[in-house]
Amino acid sequence: QVQLVESGGGLVQPGGSLRLSCAASGTIFRFNTMGWYRRAPGKQRELVAIISSGGTTTYANSAEGRFTISRDNAKNTVALQMDSLKPEDTAVYYCTIVGSRYWGQGTQVTVSS
User: Fold this and answer.
1) Which of 15, 17, 25, 39 shows the greatest Cβ crowding within 10 Å of its Cβ?
2) Among 102, 81, 109, 106, CA closest to 24
3) Is 58 exposed, middle or buried, given 0-12, 13-18 or 19+ CB atoms closer than 10 A?
4) 68 - beta bridge partners?
5) Which residues pair with 46 in a beta bridge?
6) Is residue 84 left, alpha or beta, with left meaning phi > 0 and alpha meaning psi from -120 to 50?
7) For residues 45-54, b (16+ Cβ closer than 10 Å) or e, as one string?
């Protein structure tokens, strides 16, 4: 049974940083392309960043230069380092195995002063 469990969300002031983590189980993690998506209030879920099994990364324009996705295949985890956070980054952030039906439960990120 595949499980994805996110952690690390919270409340942060504009300009601050947060690090999200997603722990995967029940899958051969090193073969998976992993992604972070988010859903802001009243909006559709959107891509934030993707990292391939080989470590190639892709970012949404809104995340480029501020967010960094990384993976640790030994620990079956994927992380999203978010710096220079803006109020418009407020959303529920989800971890997924790209192209699969597997999603985490989400973690809330709120950027507000």
Assistant:
1) 39
2) 102
3) middle
4) 81
5) 38
6) left
7) eebbbbbeee
